[in-house]
Write a structure and sequence with these properties.
single chain; about 70% helix
């Protein structure tokens, strides 16, 4: 029998003894070179990304004519830089937590919406149609000493002096949550829409009330979406520049704004590379465990995760 021939006919409808077109060439699968060419732009971008990250890491260790830890020692010798570094990670964690607290109920409400979900999804994604600079400036108008919130509270007699809602961590967190919230809503909703409604009905028919069904059925099954959205938001928060610059001011800097300053104002590329590498390490220290946890939960719940095989 020829290699690649179907022995006893065919589960896919081909007659016995016929040759599988995919393995007709000596048992080796045919390669669709035209499909591979479609991946060429992605491979070029991936190669450029790897090269740029490698050059960044190399630049951070470059010390005069050789390599050393001079830039890292200089970083940890500056208490203000260390404080900025940990403030960045703290703000990113706060933004992620607030995005989950606000985004999950919105995604759940859209999932339960009986009508067409396109309308609420358009409302969620509507801020993306406006520049992040414009949106952040709008928050400066709202949160300022004479903004809408302070003027309203003063008119109601709640406060005697304006609250400080910007140029601090509060302003940065509010602005970043508003910018990044759609990512959490879409991530959670993408998991909820694939849940089997029969599981809810089974829980209710066995005596579980709405609270029990949500906490024991819906919430655990939607955790992969929560962790996926949290990963994206945490990564984007650590590297944010515009919103921290406008709502944080000069005293509440983050690592992203510090890198921008080193590159665009002082042209100190080795120092900027050092900050970028440390920021990358800090982000991966949180994101990798989250990805591992997401994979474990997905496997335990029987949820297929693209790119991962179920062991």
């Amino acid at each position: 029998m020829r290699r690649g021939a179907v022995p006893n006919g065919a589960a896919d409808g081909r007659p016995p003894g016929s040759v599988d077109p995919a393995t007709a060439d000596g048992g080796r699968p045919d390669v669709d070179w035209r499909s591979l060419l479609l991946l060429a732009p992605s491979l070029v971008l991936l190669a450029l990304f790897v090269a740029s990250v490698g050059q960044m890491v190399s630049l951070s260790f470059r010390d005069g004519g050789g390599f050393g830890l001079q830039h890292y020692r200089a970083f940890f010798a500056r208490p203000d830089y260390v404080a900025t570094y940990f403030r960045t990670l703290q703000v990113a964690a706060l933004v992620t937590f607030c995005s989950i607290a606000v985004g999950y109920p919105i995604a759940y409400a859209i999932w339960r919406y009986p009508g067409n979900r396109n309308l609420p999804m358009i409302l969620v994604a509507l801020p993306w149609l406006v520049s992040v600079v414009v949106r952040t400036y709008a928050w400066m108008v709202i949160l300022g000493p004479r903004g809408v919130i302070n003027e309203t509270l003063a008119w109601l007699g709640v406060i005697d002096a304006p609250l400080k809602l910007m140029f601090n961590t509060t302003g940065i967190v509010i602005g970043l949550v508003h910018v990044l919230l759609p990512f959490m809503v879409i991530s959670v909703l993408s998991v909820l829409v694939h849940l089997d409604r029969g599981l809810e009905e089974a829980s209710m028919s066995l005596g579980g009330n709405h609270s029990f069904t949500f906490t024991r059925v819906v919430l655990p099954l939607s955790l992969p979406g929560v962790l996926g959205g949290a990963t994206v938001i945490y990564l984007m928060s650590t590297g944010a520049i515009v919103t921290p610059l406008l709502l944080g001011g000069v005293h509440e800097r983050m690592i992203g704004t510090q890198i921008y300053q080193e590159v665009m104002q002082t042209f100190n590329f080795p120092k900027a590379s050092t900050l970028a590498v440390l920021l990358l390490v800090g982000a991966l220290a949180v994101v990798l465990p989250m990805q591992w946890l997401e994979g474990r939960i997905s496997m335990r719940m029987g949820i297929a995760v693209p790119g991962r095989s179920r062991a």
